[in-house]
User: Fold this.
Amino acid sequence: MINKLPPFKYLITFDAAARLGNFSKAAEELSLTQSAISQQLLKLEEWMGQRLFFRHGKGVGLTAAGELLHETVKDSLEKLASGLMRIEPYKNKASVIIACPADFAHGWLTPQLGLLKLTYPNIEVWLMTEKEVREIDRIDVDLIISRRPIYNANIECVALFEDYTIAICGSQIAQRIQHHSYPKILESAPILLLESEPVWYSKSLGDDIKNLRITRGATIDDSRLLLEAVIRELGIGFVSHALAFQALKDGQVKRLSQIPEEPRSRLWLMRSNLEPRTPFSNIVFNWMKQLATMPTSV
Assistant:
């Protein structure tokens, strides 16, 4: 595969010339002579069997083949730069890489990081929320928070806290409907739904739900956007307590205690029993255990 690719330095030179539209500026950016730039680009054109540039006034433009190549080279260099950036924390012994659900990171963990930085100002925390991680290899991840515990001889798994689905609304709506009883309160404001979760209150109400005039205000595929919609007074939302934790604490939303909460899977905190990549793995593990008082704090 590598033999089918042109020399990497040619691609770097090509990207600079294509971006800047000028060989002299490319030479200045790369600390090369203009002659070296021209020679490398000539060799790249020979390797490609295509003209990549045409003269345009005092600068250069891209041919159709050049535009296609630059799109590919640009994307590849951006991916390479992104990958190299992701490797950075592995070299930093004052870092910790945490994989956790997005709602937990948004509502509970991120707002607490300021407290951690007060004690350890040099710590670098990396949060991974895009996909669920099921293995701690001490290279790609140091700690895992998940609603699915990992039972493994090499992993310590402790319960962090119980979580619930709760009903919340903005302070203005709460002031208007706070004395309404359940289930009639569901008629008092539009209902905001999360696309991935069932309308659990309809199950508990059974046939009685047919007698309610419920207005569906929005269906949203991201729980963090749903929380934002609630904060902006768009209706009643049903979210995890973990997600709503800081918004409740800050008074941005109000909990509607008339509407029954629904148990969710417990959140678990996990670390490897083997030698950690960094001592901050164990420091943050113990710090989170001490802070995990969420069920009774708001």
Notes: The chain has three domains: 2-88, 91-162+265-297, 163-264.
